[in-house]
Amino acid sequence: MSRVSDTSSPAHVRRGPNAGRFGDVDSTRLPLLVTAAALVTTAAVAATAVAGPALLAGLLAILALIVALGWPVLGGPPSLGRVQLGLAIGGLLVAGTVGLTTGPYRLVWLPVAVAIGMIASFFLQLLRSDDRHGLTEAMSVAACGLAALASGATLVPLSLSDKGVRFLLVGLVGLAAGTIAELSGRARAIGAKAVFVVMVVGALASWVAAQFAGMSGSAAVGMGMLLASFSYSARRIFGAVPGAREAAGQVALGVGTVLLPGILVLALGAIAQVTPG
Fold first, then answer.
1. Which of 6, 94, 202, 251 fits 224 for a cystine, CB–CB 3.0-4.6 Å?
2. Is residue 32 part of a domain?
3. DSSP letter string over 12-28?
4. Which residues, in sequence order, are CB contacts of 8 under 8 Å at separation 6+?
5. Whole-angstrom Cα distance, residue 141 to residue 162?
């Protein structure tokens, strides 16, 4: 008597050779739109940081709307429109607080903006007329998107001084180089091992940039490696969901994963004493 295996059982699900794969979504071969969005965002942050904190804050407001539109698409929560609206409110508040606050302490009202954004997102969910199924999922998506925007806002203090701008640019060069290097993962022979390529390329690019910026080469190597690998890893994680097939989700994924390491740059800048205050 032949035995018929139950292929619908999770124990019999065939797993491909690539990690980070759900259905037909393979985060080792992210759509080129994700890479393009990340590179454009990196270039825009660099340009506005050189121009000054006001323009950088203005860019953050634009990026907040892009993330608000596309980030919830990645998670696909119920009441998608309410999640998008709540994230837009929080993102604009984040950009507004760091843009309108004067002096060296630009982040003093940032926690308040994040808190109001979360409260607004939760309140919008309470207005739902259904049984509010997927409430936890909706709030998780909103919190994650708002965290990325708030982390990006922490770059604004670095734009207040020439030393801070140079420090930020060195890190962004490594991040951009790592973003290009992640395309190596599209080769099946490399796949998930592309993270090592990203780390090496990001470190080398920041080291080269540091030679022109008058910055310590060893510090630049560490920062470039950290930012490039962190951003790439975030794209791998959030790119392995069905929503990553949608164009809006792909753009938001590229934008959000450039902003997400912002808090790391600020922390490293504080250690290097290039931040005001």
1. 202
2. yes
3. G----SSSSEETTEEGG
4. none
5. 36
Distance separating alpha carbons of residues 254 and 185, to the nearest angstrom: 16
Q: What is the pLDDT of residues 159-169, one digit of tens each?
A: 999 999 999 99
Q: Quick check: is 1 in a domain?
A: no
Query: Which tokens sit at 184?
Result: 């190596």
- Total structural domains in the chain? 1
pLDDT at 277: 60
Amino acid at 270: A
Query: Which ranges of 13-161 does DSSP label H, i.e. alpha helix?
Result: 32-51, 53-75, 80-100, 110-126, 135-153
Q: What is the DSSP letter of 78?
A: S
Q: What is the pLDDT of residues 226-257, one digit of tens each?
A: 999 999 999 999 988 888 889 999 999 999 99
Write out the E strands in the chain. 21-22, 25-26
Q: 189: which DSSP letter?
A: T
Give residue 154's pLDDT.
96
232 located within any domain: yes
Distance CA 228, CA 171 (A): 9
3-state secondary structure of 113: helix
Say which amino acid occupies 58. Answer: G
Q: What is the mean pLDDT of the chain?
A: 89
Q: Cα-flanking dihedrals φ and ψ of residue 132, to 5°?
A: 60, 40
Residue 190 domain-assigned? Answer: yes
